[in-house]
Design a protein that fits this description.
Elements: H1 2-13, H2 16-31, E1 33-34, E2 37-38, H3 40-69, H4 82-101, H5 106-126, H6 133-149, H7 151-154, H8 159-169, H9 175-200, H10 210-231, H11 239-254, H12 257-277, H13 282-288
Antiparallel strand pairs: 1-2
Length: 290
């Protein structure tokens, strides 16, 4: 029962419109520093735009829709998620258009466009499969923070294995759905952001090099993906250690040292979460039989 309560708290505070509040706050803070000086008026405008269109409006429709359907706040039934997702797409796109019209910071402008596109991808997947909106909602802004802050932004990825455990423990998603949401969110956000800046030649703050971003993304998702795959296969689970060692060698040989550190931290976090979760969580069974 205690584990369920903890999982519920984690799930509540990582609801996409809620988790984006502190993460977008950091993004807006970073974007408001120009030439070593902090532009307070710019921060207020960016924060208001992100708060309204990335948090308040999406949360409002979730609360309204859940109440109307007399369902839980997660809107657990896959078919009931279409309307909130559509409203989310529209809200993010309006925020994008407003940033575009007002000539606001290009980074936030493109990020809101990516939010709208990625939510559209989630909507398409949801027609057939209940991919986790929670892990997608976490990986999007964390991906943006990686672009802005590199390894410091990647540290927020430590929430990813914790959120996977929470959603699976609450039986809101399968392990595959929870893992896939994060992988999709990281990949789409980082690649799309770079693509838009290159194609349209937009100026923005200095970004973490694309290859470094990809390494940080891989550092976050590698161990959860390995544990997830082994949870669904009959392969000897001692292979977990072999896969992790191979990943360590690859990171040490080709990735920035900071990406290797992030990989190790996420791996340790994943193992500790598995041990705490116990035999009710698939990852624990992988480690136990290793």
């Amino acid at each position: 029962m205690e584990k369920l309560k903890i999982a519920k708290v984690i799930s509540t505070f990582t609801n996409p419109p809620i988790i984006c509040i502190p993460l977008f706050f950091i993004i807006c803070l970073v974007l408001s520093f120009e030439n070593g000086a902090f532009d307070f008026s710019k921060f207020i405008v960016l924060e208001l735009i992100s708060l309204i269109f990335a948090s308040v409006l999406p949360m409002a429709i979730i609360v309204y829709w859940a109440k109307k359907l007399n369902t839980d706040s997660d809107i657990s039934n896959r078919e009931d998620r279409f309307t909130p997702l559509i409203v989310g797409i529209v809200s993010y796109f309006i925020g994008f258009l407003l940033c575009l019209i007002l000539h606001l910071d290009n980074f936030l402008t493109v990020l809101l466009l990516c939010y709208s596109i990625n939510t559209g991808v989630v909507l398409l997947i949801t027609t057939k499969w209940k991919i986790s909106v929670h892990t997608t909602g976490l990986s999007g802004p964390v991906g943006a923070l990686i672009l802005l802050l590199g390894p410091i932004g990647a540290l927020f990825g430590l929430l990813y294995p914790l959120l996977i455990w929470s959603r699976v423990t609450l039986e809101k998603h399968t392990l595959a759905q929870a893992i896939a949401g994060g992988v999709q969110g990281f990949f789409l956000t980082i690649v799309e952001m770079y693509l838009f800046f290159i194609v349209f030649g937009l100026k923005t703050v200095p970004l973490t090099p694309l290859m470094d971003c990809i390494w940080y993304m891989l550092a976050i998702v590698a161990t959860p993906v390995i544990l997830g795959i082994l949870s669904y296969t009959d392969i000897n689970n001692r292979m977990f250690y072999i896969f992790v060692i191979i990943a360590m060698v690859i990171f040490l040989a080709f990735a920035p040292l900071s990406a290797f550190v992030v990989f190790m931290l996420v791996s340790i976090a994943s193992v500790l979460i598995s041990i705490y979760a116990g035999s009710d969580f698939q990852w624990f069974n992988v480690l136990k039989s290793s």
